[in-house]
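Hi R.,

Quick one: here's the Probable LRR receptor-like serine/threonine-protein kinase At1g67720 sequence you asked about.
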Amino acid sequence: MSTSIFLLWLVSIPLAIHAAPNKNVQPHGFLLNCGGSEKIEQDSLTYTPDDNFIKTGNKSEIQQEGLVPLLSSVRYFPDDVEEKFCYHFPVNKGRKLLVKTIYYYGGFDGGKEPPIFDQIIDGTKWNINTTADYAEGLSSYYEIIMVAHNKVLSICLAKNEHTTSNPFISAIELLYLDDSLYNSTDFGKYALVTLARHSFGSHDTIIFPDDKFNRYWYPLLDDNPVVTSHTSITPSAFWNMPPEKLFENSITASRGKTLVLNWPPFPVPKTYYYIALYFQDSRTPSPFSWRVFDVLVNGAKFYSNLNVTTDGVTVYSTTWPLEGETKITLIPPNNSPVGPVIAAGELFQLLPLAGLTLTRDVAVMEDLRKSFNKKPQDWHGDPCLPKDKSWTGVTCSSGMNTRIISLNLTNAGISGPLPPSISKLTALTHLWLGSNELTGQIPDLSQLKNLETLHLENNQLQGSIPESLGQLPKLKEVFLQNNHLKGSIPASLQNKNGINLKVTPGNEVSS
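And here's the predicted structure, written out as tokens:
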């Protein structure tokens, strides 16, 4: 198990068959069998082929005896031209999501080691390195909790300076979470990357259907005694809705003794974390079924005089600093008749978002992508983010609220009409689409108040020159020659102070 800043990959799926009857309601969202050609059933879940969510990449089957169906195929991306390869999902803007990407290399391309590459979700990027897990015969998964900021969410893979072969992916889970889960996080600025999720004192991994969101709760046993609960909890009574099965076992200490737990079982990089700890008194409910103790994390007071009953309780911090090894200490009062107890823990790293491209600008660029024929091959995912993977011809502003400020596709071989929505790119300063095969009319560009230069020369545009061009306050240069325009040049444009205007040859226009 390995850690890196902003991400830890976890052992995710056993390589042997783990069948379960499919009698449960599927979680709301998308479950994709990447590279597969048919639906598969695994652990009471149905995964569908990914063809409807991506238009690029190749498929490959992994021939390995005993491999679970979900890891038996991959989609991989050998194209050297495209900058990123993207899945697109229609989502409900503002809803909370759990996004899980699953990888098992399996030597699909005849190599010995899996490639290293980048994963990008809505413009936020991090490194995918499954080498250590694969060397131990394990699959890997990456999990992130976030809020959908647009109506379409993109999950992209991209080559980087360490990539020596083809990026690949085995499966994707994109599931909606209830609003209460992890709701004290500022999801406008951060996402939560799952580092650890453990059930203390358990022998089995807890997954769907016991966890309705298919979160993986791994067993963790140490030298502390284990107790079995005599009563059930109600998941909906907890903000984070832990599964009922999570509380069947807990670890404890003897009467009046301090309980020390080294968790997570690996060192973590220095940064801030979301920590959630879960507790339940294991005894039969009675007026005396409660325990009080202090909770410390690395010696610092996390919660004082926590009262744990048979109903269960959770305590959490949204921004707790950690570095290296972590120690959870539960200290009861000296006269306590029972020892402290703990059932489970979750640890997430706060991942600062790379920023957001303005939703309206993203929608306009999607209109352009659909309208243009022969558009650049890398026009997938967020048009601006991450900054080193912005679309060809697109220049964007800096900061959290990213805007498109320039579009230069001169001599790019594009064809098709200019959609009227291009006028909604209101931060645009330069629009250069010259020497292509654009058709139709020049749309109303009156909203482009920041536009300084407009190059539409050497196309097949028809109709008249819009009167609105003369009202753009910052416009200094307009090239329209060699189209099929007719009519007269608007006086407001022709008489504009300091304008560099080229309309002829090639158009039937008059002054």
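The longest strand covers residues 268-279.

Cheers,
M.
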